[in-house]
Fold this protein.
Amino acid sequence: MSTYTLPELPYDYAALEPHISGEILELHHDKHHAAYVKGANETLERIAEAREKGDFSSLVGLEKTLAFNVSGHVLHSLYWQNMSPDGGGRPEGELAEAINEHFGSFERFHAQMSAATTAVQGSGWGVLSYEPTSQRLIVEQVYDHHGNVGVGSVPLLAFDAWEHAYYLQYRNVRADFVKAMWEVVNWPDVAARYVAARAQHRSGD
Ligand code: MN
């Protein structure tokens, strides 16, 4: 039994054109995301084998591989939902108010999120997260899929800054891809995640 499964894309491969090409989306979902799902399931199996044998000599590497693949699966599953052919514009309601409160204005948040995504060294993500301990919105600059992240923060909006997310269309100009990302953001999805994250924290008080 597989613990992790590849979710269907909520739209056609070409649905986000011209901002993100169908070729990119097909490869990104069917090859890259699928590889993280496979890697997560295989790593769990290898850890189970180690438990059965009582041989944990490879555990350090396996734990790192598990974190990489599970986080890759989680962030890509979020990323597909964060985009929409009807996306773009600005958030409304509670999310818009929280962005103003915690970043000063939408423009300042936009600038920070763009900078975080554009300036990732190597492969990573720019992520808007809800940090439950402080009950704040923060931007995190994630390395690979799982580094440089605060424990417990809840990702709400993820911009993939790996070259596989843009190189076929935008070549080396990651900043142009980040500009295009803003045109496809599914704000109702991000807002619903914010409301759910806050409610979950309150119920856990
Ligand atoms: Mn990716």
Observations:
- The two ends are 35 Å apart (CA to CA).
- DSSP finds seven helices and three strands in the chain.
- Residues 22-53 form the longest helix (32 residues).
- The chain has two domains: 21-81, 93-203.
